[in-house]
Amino acid sequence: MKGYKVLARALEASADHIYSVPGFPVTELSDESGGILVSGEKVAVEYALGHSLSGSRAAIIMKNVGLNACADPLIHATTQGLIGGVVVVSGDDHLALGSTNTEDSRFYGELGRLPVLEPGPGTCARVIEAAFSASERFSRIALVRVTPELLFSEAIGETVKRGQTRGRLAPSDLTMKGRADLAESLVPGMFEWAERSDLNTIQGGIAGVGPAPGDSHIVTAYPPPAGLRECSSVREIGRPFVGEHLCLSPPMSVPEPETAGKRGYVKTFCRNCPFIPVMEILKEKGLQVISDAGCSILALNPPFRIALASYGLGTAVGVAARSSGVALIGDYAMIHSGIPSLIDVYEKGLPLLCIVLDNRCMGMTGGQVTPFPDQYLAWADPVRVKATERDKLSHLINRPDRPKTILVEGTCPEGRHHEIVEC
User: Fold this and answer.
1) 3-state SS, one letter per residue, for 341-359
2) pTM to 2 decimals?
3) Cα separation of 334 and 314, whole Å?
4) CATH of 264-422, one of 3.40.640.10, 3.20.20.70, 3.40.50.970, 3.60.15.10
5) Which residues of the chain have pLDDT under 50?
């Protein structure tokens, strides 16, 4: 059986949801697995994170150059955490046979502190379940790197039992630095995982990574197992990523994750923020939101605590569409990179309430003027409402049975600054 067929069966067995953005060399894998087509890789990762928050597993199939488009949520997920496993299967076109470059996806493992696995013909079936298990164990996205040498060659198929592990979101009392520290504290465990993985067979001589031939066979590409240093040389498909990272060692010490209580304060909305009524209505109705980067991220903090998670600029729409059903996003974040997800949500008719806080400025970065959002969102037929129209807001803020976008208009106060609340 060809490698892409073995991988497809493994994805069907281990994942509850599969999304794909086809392209060489993963088009056949996308078709064989029945992955749901989406408008872009970032949208697919957002959907997958939404499913994760709901406790289910999701996989995304894409090619190497597509991985660049979802770098922001990919890396944010490491510090914010997840619940159900999320696995990205990235097809690397190292000879540029159908691509514009020869990018090696494994470098995202180093950048995002992600577990990276590269299967060979004998480990194809087991590697997907192992990737989901690693994603849940370390509460971050796991990356599976595949190449034409694996996908279109013969591989061994077998039945693999699905695991029952779960990840966790970063505790809500941690500061953003505390979340980063907590994520880093799990990295030594990733080194131990790589060293003990039964997917690797280390017996000296020449080591082959993934489908590369060798006396020893390596699957955990990042972090690479320490035992690999005893091999005489390393063979790889594409760049010598593993060979260049043999000197890696786990962090010697990691600070205790910082809590808001230890720091002594949290930040919240400006004292005269025009959007306070939106937060109050959401809290009164018991609606949980996915917040975005920008001021909406403050919904994670007291006194409202209405946000479940936030995965970076422009991500709230896609994540919310597959989890809480309510996205809270600023006008700039929407225009910056939220629109592709909103388009896909409307095309699929997903039940989502998208609340856009329209203050015409970048509230977190100095108040720079943003473009008028209506000209970008007219196709969605949004409802425009002033933040002062509380009764109208209350009528509009409900979980819909189809996509609905609200533009809430408000003007930030002069001399605005986020309030500091002592803990």
Assistant:
1) HHHHHHHHCCCCEEEEEEC
2) 0.97
3) 6
4) 3.40.50.970
5) none
